[in-house]
Amino acid sequence: MASLPPPARRVAWLWDLPVRLFHWLLVGLLGFSWWSGEQHEMDWHRLSGYAIVGLLIFRVYWGFAGGRTARFAQFVKGPRAALDYVRGRYTAAPGHNPVGGWSVLALLATLTVMVGTGLFAVDVDGLESGPLSDYVSFDAGRTAAEVHHLAFNALLALVALHVVAILVYLVRRKNLIGPMIHGRRTLAGEEQAAPLGASWWKAGVGVVIAAAIAWAISKGFRFR
Amino acid sequence: MIPTRAFRPIHIAVLLSVGCAIAAPAAAPSPAAIVAARQAGFKKIGGAMKVLKDQLASGAPVKATMVAAAQTVAAGAKEQAKLFPAGSGASSGVKNDALPSVWSDRAAFDAAMQKFIVESGKLVTVANGGDAAAIGAQFKATGGTCGACHRQFRAEQ
């Protein structure tokens, strides 16, 4: 009896291009921000920070306007769903699972604190400072710089957790890294997948909004 | 009326340490008092540098404000040079960021301090001139002396 040929591997989009670009640009810029900060290359450090401000604004916008798996409404679930997921009682839809969703929010919140305090931070000599530091006192700017340092440690912890989780899934034969690069996942059996519905023009609008706000912040809202 | 400006933390710290010195003529001011005065002094200088930077960034700098800030920096530079007596480093048990090289390489430290005094003196001169571009350049030159000394003689923050 002739055996059936193996079924063709069918794929579907998991992450839209803006999500993937956001992710990898953020990885690169975080590394560069760390390096430039350590080297006291503050002009570069500020530029990198403005780029991250733009990325964050875009990502929040994309959380409402993006493809299905990019949207907060799709992956932000209550604690019950997260607990059920941990206990293996929750069948997650493709995309961030309920625990991963909280991890995304925690990372975004920490990054917001990071760049938010950086904008107001002043160094101990009053020489280097964020673009909004002239709106606050020296003491407030110093406090912002201290929180900026503390938030970096929190961010490192979250990144470590993120990487460990990816490795755990890898050991359990689920590769999360590939889809974040090429954007596709393999469909199981007879599964049918709806398109993500990410729109080019909406992405363009988001880029313009994010770039404009980041530029205005970098100027300290002074447009003379 | 006594101007309230007269009572800044550094003055209180200095008065206290002087007071202690008078009360116990044999004893020098305690390391704790010196470190407190030193840190308050640097903080005041940092604050004045920020005032200058903010003025320059505002696009409409006020000359009197910049002159006052430059004078604070220049006066502070001269005061700070006196606040590093032997035995006031971290080894005194008082937590501070001054590295042992301040005392082991004293000549280089004093030279670095002298540069700060000279550049901050010029800062007052250009501030009085009122040319924003020149003030900006001298702000950088003065800040450069801060940074150079800190890289060599202060623990990484």
Automatic annotation (TrEMBL), chain A:
The record lists the membrane-crossing segments as 12-35, 47-64, 99-122, 150-172, 193-217
Q: How does it sit in the membrane?
A: Multi-pass membrane protein
| Tagged with keyword Cell cycle | no
The record places domain Cytochrome b561 bacterial/Ni-hydrogenase at: 15-183
Q: Which Pfam families match?
A: Ni_hydr_CYTB
Keywords (alphabetical) are: Cell membrane, Membrane, Transmembrane, Transmembrane helix
Q: Which residues form the signal peptide?
A: none
* Keyword Transferase listed: no
Subcellular localization: Cell membrane
Q: What is this protein called?
A: Cytochrome b/b6 domain-containing protein
Q: What is the organism field in this record?
A: Sphingomonas immobilis
From TrEMBL, chain B:
Which PROSITE patterns does the UniProt entry name for this protein? CYTCII (PS51009), PROKAR_LIPOPROTEIN (PS51257)
- Looking at the record's lineage, which domain of life comes first? Bacteria
- Is Heme found in the keyword set? yes
* Nucleotide-binding is among the record's keywords: no
Keywords, alphabetical: Electron transport, Heme, Iron, Metal-binding, Signal, Transport
Alphabetical list of InterPro entries matching this protein: Cyt_c/b562, Cyt_c_II, Cyt_c_prime, Cyt_c_prime_subgr
Q: Where is the signal peptide?
A: 1-23
Please identify the protein, giving its name as recorded.
Answer: Cytochrome c
